TrEMBL record:
It is found in: Cytoplasm. The gene is tsaD. It comes from Microbacterium oryzae. InterPro entries: ATPase_NBD, Gcp-like_dom, KAE1/TsaD, TsaD. This is tRNA N6-adenosine threonylcarbamoyltransferase. The keyword Cytoplasm applies. Residues 26-318 form the Gcp-like domain. One of its GO terms (biological process) is tRNA threonylcarbamoyladenosine modification. Keywords: Acyltransferase, Cytoplasm, Iron, Metal-binding, Transferase, tRNA processing. Its cofactor is Fe(2+).
Length: 344
């Protein structure tokens, strides 16, 4: 059909996301997060996430169907994230999607989580069609990836990604070092209010001339995390107080600087005047501010989907499948499984 009714299932990390779209129209987007259960561990625990998906799945599907005002039997297709992500968590979504597609006798589409983040942009209310090519920067607790998108359904190239921690993970770990609760991103944002972003020059990972050849578009945040730990330990050893606002602002600036610099360098080098941002870390106000200001100076237009579509959700997975269906893509066979390292 021209505007397929698609139910999308997302379980790659700690959000059980069920979304329903008709073509590019968002009908419902139910998200059950197990974030609270991970808080006392300071990060997502895969086993806990998988179990939470199992418990949340059925009610989330029922809620999404009710909110969309459809009958489950009316869907034209079922879509699911098959990777990348946490293996056990992915398996729950893939199992549920297969069961649903078989029982409804509807086609099943296995899709890539990162490409799904890009498809989220199609669901924004005022959205004009996504123009190609575009560079996409996806930053969350689970990934930090830079992609060149020539066509959402057929030509997405991974330029680079983090070689260690994801950007959101760096926020979470540094928050822990500073004695702040999980999730660390919003906490560091709050702590940074009034701080001087240039107070401490923390390292920008993989930004040296010698990194250009092998890691031009890759990111690294574990050295930054260690630098913050060393800096605060040294202060404490000298019996001095930690200037929280300055440390938080300087750390955040190092993350934001390297993300925006590499994204805009990728735009320049590939002759692409468009940048799409996605992932939960986009909630960071400083990141949006710096990205918008520097992009404008570089003649690059920035697109940022609404935040509830930037964090992990099922609607973006349904939206991607809807595009694939309309481009004539054949459904997946039931032979596929969860693939924690699925390439784009
Ligand atoms: O996309 P997302 O909701 O899901 C996962 O990746 O699981 O992203 C969550 C991540 C967490 O690491 C959190 O600390 C980070 O996004 N985050 C932020 C902010 N809000 C959430 N990072 C920086 N600044 C924020 N304001
Ligand atoms: Zn994600």
């Amino acid at each position: 059909p021209a505007e397929p009714l698609v139910l999308g299932i997302e379980t790659s990390c700690d959000e059980t996301g069920i979304g329903i779209v008709r073509g590019r129209t968002l009908l419902s987007n139910t998200i059950a997060s197990s974030m609270d259960e991970h808080a006392r561990f300071g990060g997502v625990v895969p086993e806990v996430a998988a179990r939470a998906h199992l418990e949340a799945m059925q009610p989330a599907i029922e809620q999404a169907v009710a909110e969309a005002g459809i009958r489950l039997a009316d869907v034209d297709a079922v879509a699911v994230t098959s990777g990348p992500g946490l293996a056990g968590a992915l398996m729950v979504g893939v199992g549920a999607a297969k069961a649903l597609a078989v029982s409804l006798e509807k086609p099943l589409y296995a899709v890539n989580h990162l490409v799904g983040h890009i498809a989220a942009d199609l669901l924004a209310d005022d959205s004009e069609p996504l123009e190609y090519p575009t560079v996409a920067l996806l930053v969350s607790g689970g990934h930090t990836s830079l992609l060149l998108v020539r066509d959402l359904t057929s030509d997405v190239e991974l330029l680079g990604e983090t070689v260690d921690d994801a950007a959101g993970e760096a926020f979470d770990k540094v928050a822990r070092i500073l004695g702040l609760p999980y999730p660390g991103g919003p906490e560091i944002d709050r702590a940074a209010v009034g701080g001087d972003p240039d107070a401490i020059r923390f390292p920008r990972g993989l930004s040296r001339a010698s990194d250009r050849e092998k890691h031009r578009w890759d990111f690294s945040f574990s050295g930054l995390k260690t630098a913050v730990a060393r800096w605060t330990e040294q202060r404490e050893a000298e019996g001095e107080a930690i200037p929280m606002a300055d440390v938080a602002a300087s750390f955040r600036e190092a993350v934001v600087d390297v993300l925006v610099t590499k994204a805009l360098d990728a735009c320049a080098e590939h002759g692409v005047p468009r940048l799409l941002l996605g992932g939960g870390v986009i909630a960071n106000r400083r990141l949006r501010e710096v990205a918008l200001a520097r992009a404008e100076a570089a003649g690059v237009t920035v697109r940022i989907p609404p935040l509830r579509l930037c964090t992990d959700n099922g609607a973006m997975i349904a939206a991607l499948a809807s595009e694939l269906i309309q481009s004539g893509r054949r459904p997946s066979t039931l032979a596929f499984g969860a693939d924690s390292t699925l390439p784009v």
